[in-house]
Amino acid sequence: MELFTNANDLLLWARGDAFTIALAIFVIGVMIRLLEILLLGRKKDLSEPRAMEWGPGLRTILTRSLVDPATFKRAPFVIVVGYIWHICFFIVLLLFVPHIELIHNLLGVQWPGLATPLVDASTVIAMLALLAMLWHRLTDPLLKFLTTFEDYLVWLVTFLPLLTGYIAFHRMIEPYPLALAMHILSAELLLVIFPFSKLMHVFTVFLARWYTGATMGRKGVQS
Questions:
Q1: Which of 89, 111, 91, 90 is nearest to 102 (CA)?
Q2: Taking a C-beta distance cutoff of 8 angstroms, is the pair 26, 187 a contact?
């Protein structure tokens, strides 16, 4: 007996049980990873504080999010393409009207979306940026040596939702329910892998920057 008799059945499963499972793994996984970090705590600093922690911590989040000239000089390609990729990806994720409607159904919040042609263009640019970063990683001897299986896996599960979304939107595969199911399932694969991979940096990067700034600020050192 076949599990799915047609594309519509697959789409219903992707929108229903598969989405529920993937979302649960994502939420629980992220919570566990964040709790692991927060519960580690830190050794009590008995020295007299020279400054408050919150201000320097927030300042470090801001300054470390800007491009350092020395870093840009060493790796301009990585910096430029990385910024392009992140900006375009978040445009697609957060400003595409169907995605906003999904978030509204889940969380009850919504905001205005961008015009579809702009989101479509951002999808193409994001995919090209990811392909460029993969090419750079494969052709740079040092980067290639340092690259692990996880790096390739993260690249793949990030690229697939963009590719399948583009294919579904432009109806490049028929029947359409199959194309849409492929897109939803690829996004769910990303949700499942997210908490257990380097993708967690989306959350931990700000915690790490604040902690560094707060620690240095307490000591009166510029971070």
A1: 111
A2: no
| Whole-number Å distance between alpha carbons of 3 and 26 | 25
* pLDDT on residue 1: 35
What's residue 86's pLDDT?
93
| CA–CA distance, 186 with 194 (Å, rounded to integer) | 12
Task: Give the list of residues 6+ apart from residue 79 with CB closer than 8 angstroms, or none.
Answer: 67, 71, 72
Cis peptide before 175 (omega within 30 of 0): yes
Q: Cα dist. 144→27, 136, 140, 149, 197 in Å? A: 32, 9, 6, 11, 19
Please indicate whether residue 38 or residue 117 has the higher confidence score (pLDDT): 117
Residue 166's Cβ-side half-sphere holds a number of Cα atoms within 13 Å equal to 17
Centre a 10 Å sphere on the Cβ of residue 116 and count the other Cβ atoms it contains: 12
